[in-house]
Each structure stands twice: as C-alpha cells, then as structure tokens.
Amino acid sequence: MNTEINFRIPVALTIGGSDSGGGAGIQADLRTFAFHCVHGTSAITCITAQNTLGVNRVDAMPTEAVVAQIQAVVEDIGVQAVKTGMLLNQEIIFAVAQQVEALQIDNLVVDPVMVSRTGAQLIDDDAVKTLCHALIPKAVVITPNRYEAQILSGLQINSLEDMQAAAEIIHKTLRTKAVLVKGGGMQGDLRGVDIWFDGDKLEVLTCQQVETKNTHGTGCTLSAAIAANLAKGKHLWQAVQEAKEYVTTALTYALDIGEGQGPVGHFFPLLRN
C-alpha cells in the first residue's frame, strides 16, 4: 500500500553568489535554511572559484538570468522571506531591487556585502550607491559588518560607542526598519558583539567568544538564519536573537578543513553524534 505524506513548510529565497568551497554564499544559506526546517530556494548572482585560502575567480551571471530565477521561484512556489548576499554589480543590484518591489516581497533581509571582514572592498562605488538607495530601504533589517557600517555611516568604528552611533546613523539616513551592526571584525572584548537599532530600541547583543580560525561564512549564515526565522513567522527581534545563537553554536562546531579558513558547522546536531 502506498502512503503519501506531504509536508507544507515555509519557504525562503537566497539571492547571492555561489561558493565552490561550500563555506559561504548560496551553499551556506541553503544549509542554514535546512537546519531551520525551511525549504530553501535560490537565485545565483555570480559564480566564484574559491576555497579556504581565498577567491581565485568571480563570474557574474547575466542580469536577465538573475531576474528569471527570482521570478520562477516567487511566481510558482512563493516565499515567506528573502535574503540577499553578494550582488556583485550595479546592474544586478538594481534588477533585484526592482523585483522586490514588483513581486511585493516582504521580510527582506539584506546582508550588504561590500567589504570583507578584513577590510577589502568587494564591489565598486557605483554599486555601493545603488545598494544604498535602491535596495536597503526595502529591507526589514540589514546586517553590515564593521567595515560596511563604516561606509554606510561615514564613521570610523573602533569602539562600542562608535558601533552604536553608526547603527543610528544608518537607520536614519538609509530608512531601513532595523540595523544590526556586526562586531565579528572588532578586536578584543568587542569581537562578536553586535549592535541592534530599530528606531526605538538600541541593544547590545553579546555571546560567548569562540576561539577558532574557521569562521568562513558567518555573515551569510547569520542573515540566512534571520530570514529562516522570519519565514517561520517569528518576530524580527526574536529572529535576530535566535540567529545569533545559531551562529555561535555553529562556530563552536566549525569545520577544520582545507589549509586556510574553514566554514562554520551548519549541521552541528549531526556533528555532535
């Protein structure tokens, strides 16, 4: 006898780059969605040749292909939340922003991938401007790292007070609903301390510091976890808090693979066994 069992679960969409090393980007996002029991869909903006030692090559997808992927997912399957990562260039950023508006996408989490945790700028100035004016205002939350927050706020960030001031400036000038300034690139006791501001509440989020060099993909994973929690119907503040807890635990089970910086352990319940 055949017994058919169907599960209806939330759906999230990640729009970003492919990481051939599997530590960040689309690959990290889909593993994060799966951990949260959310069906993951994707729109790939670029293909990278990279490993734990670095990025060797980046190839952009045609803008029309990015748009077609988004439309194919949203128009048939539907999505309860969307996150963006590496959008690479001005044309793709603008096209994604247009689709967010045209398809009336809610629960948009923007990881404004502009600068690496080490301070290297990843997209050009025109792309940064388009990200700020066309896409970020549509987000329910953005998750800049230290260096991205410096660009978005115009401040040099060296202290907790700097992070707090940057969050308030970004919220006011870019008209996003909430800002989470990440402290992964900070030094000393501030490493891993994040700042939340939503126009009313200014909060400091702390966690246990995890001593590991294998931190590849933490930014992607955090924003994907926020999106997954939103897709499940959780309030934004709760989604952020639980996402941070997830990343911290995944860091505890980081994978020591390759010769460089390995990824976090997205599937840590399996690693425990």
TrEMBL record:
Family matches, as InterPro entries: HMP/HMP-P_kinase_dom, PM/HMP-P_kinase-1, Ribokinase-like
Domain Pyridoxamine kinase/Phosphomethylpyrimidine kinase: 19-264
GO molecular function: hydroxymethylpyrimidine kinase activity; phosphomethylpyrimidine kinase activity
A family per Pfam: Phos_pyr_kin
CDD domains: HMPP_kinase (cd01169)
EC number: 2.7.1.49, 2.7.4.7
Enzyme superclass (EC): transferase
Pathway linked to the protein: Cofactor biosynthesis; thiamine diphosphate biosynthesis; 4-amino-2-methyl-5-diphosphomethylpyrimidine from 5-amino-1-(5-phospho-D-ribosyl)imidazole: step 3/3
Keywords noted in UniProt: Kinase, Thiamine biosynthesis, Transferase
Reactions mediated catalytically: 4-amino-2-methyl-5-(phosphooxymethyl)pyrimidine + ATP = 4-amino-2-methyl-5-(diphosphooxymethyl)pyrimidine + ADP; 4-amino-5-hydroxymethyl-2-methylpyrimidine + ATP = 4-amino-2-methyl-5-(phosphooxymethyl)pyrimidine + ADP + H(+)
Protein name: Bifunctional hydroxymethylpyrimidine kinase/phosphomethylpyrimidine kinase
Protein source organism: Nostoc favosum CHAB5714
